Amino acid sequence: MTTPFTARFDHVALALERMTDGWPTFADALGGRYKDRGLAEGFSWLQLRFANGFVLETLHPEADGVGLPVDHRGDFMRRFLDRRGPGPHHLTFTVSNLDAAMAALEAAGLRPGPVDRRNPNWQEVLYGADKAHGVVLQVVEQVDPFDVEPDPPEGFPQLGYDHPIASLSRVVHAVRDLEGAVGVFRDALGGKVLSTGAAVDGNHWVELGWDGPGRLRLLEAGHAEIDTWVGDWTGRVRHLYFTFDDPGSVPGAHKVAEGRWAVDTDESLGVRLVIASTAR
Where are the domains of the chain? Predict the structure, then answer.
């Protein structure tokens, strides 16, 4: 199905208590390079870029907004952390036409949440996790994109050019309704099917890609461990999949198969990591 707009899987975002919490794993060990940061309505954010160009964003609650009216101050980050703890928060897609994207998503069964058009260069709509198969979906029309990389915050790991950098190869998201999720990310948001298959435990998957490095694997929560993982939710991010020269050096990593390591959620701020070795 051809969409009347272009879309790009821009980044995956994690909710953390503090900006510095993710640095030991994602910056120091996995080599994520500082990209950008900012302060918004009741929260701050920081972005890391990995070797393949894909971006990981971390979000952190702040006590105050930035001079905006009280009814616009964002305490959503505090509520999220109090309810679910640290871990995956949202997936962000940038689109060439926000109205067209919203119409396509509505046709796929998604009713929009808050729409924010105050900034002419960054207009966005949010779809709650209950609507978007278990993960918050942020869709953004960035009218005048720019890619300026200011200086990193004080104390950020200073890595030399010889430090290996991992690739963040894909986000793996387990869903109850695989067909419905494919309808959102393939049919409405224009993802191209790169591969399909079934895991050894019988859970089917569809991997989608867009122009750019972002890849999303939708994993059917139909059997055994994945079914338990999703629990009562309509979906849940299963893991972030990295490729790296030295997976065993990542804090908390344990070998799960030949050439593959994992870091469990309690060792990595509420998000499971799977790390494949690129060593020859």
Answer: 7-141, 167-277
Q: What's the CATH code, domain 7-141?
A: 3.10.180.10
CB-based contact 242:276 (threshold 8 Å)? yes
For 167-277, which CATH superfamily applies? 2,3-Dihydroxybiphenyl 1,2-Dioxygenase, domain 1 (3.10.180.10)
The per-residue DSSP string of the chain comes to: ---SS-EEEEEEEEE-SSGGGGIIIIIIIT-PEEEEEEE-SSEEEEEEE-TTS-EEEEEEE-SS-SS--GGG---HHHHHHHHH-SEEEEEEEEES-HHHHHHHHHHTTPPP--EEEEETTEEEEEE-TTTTTTSEEEEEE-SS------PPPTT-----TTS---EEEEEEEEES-HHHHHIIIIIIT-PEEEEEEE-TTS-EEEEEE-SSS-EEEEEE--SHHHHHHHTTSSEEEEEEEEEES-GGGSTT-EEEETTEEEE-GGGTTT--EEEEE---
Q: What are residue 167's DSSP bridge partners?
A: 243
Q: Is residue 150 scored above 80 in pLDDT?
A: no
Integer Cα distance of 84 and 208 in angstroms: 27
**pLDDT tens by residue, 227-277:** 999 999 999 999 999 999 999 999 999 999 999 999 999 887 999 999 999
Residue 126: how many CA atoms within 13 Å on its side-chain side? 11
Q: Could you check whether 7-141 and 167-277 share the same CATH topology?
A: yes
User: What is the β-pairing status of strands 122-127 and 136-141?
Assistant: antiparallel
Question: pLDDT digits over 86-143, tens only?
Answer: 999 999 999 999 999 999 999 999 999 989 998 888 999 999 999 899 999 999 998 7
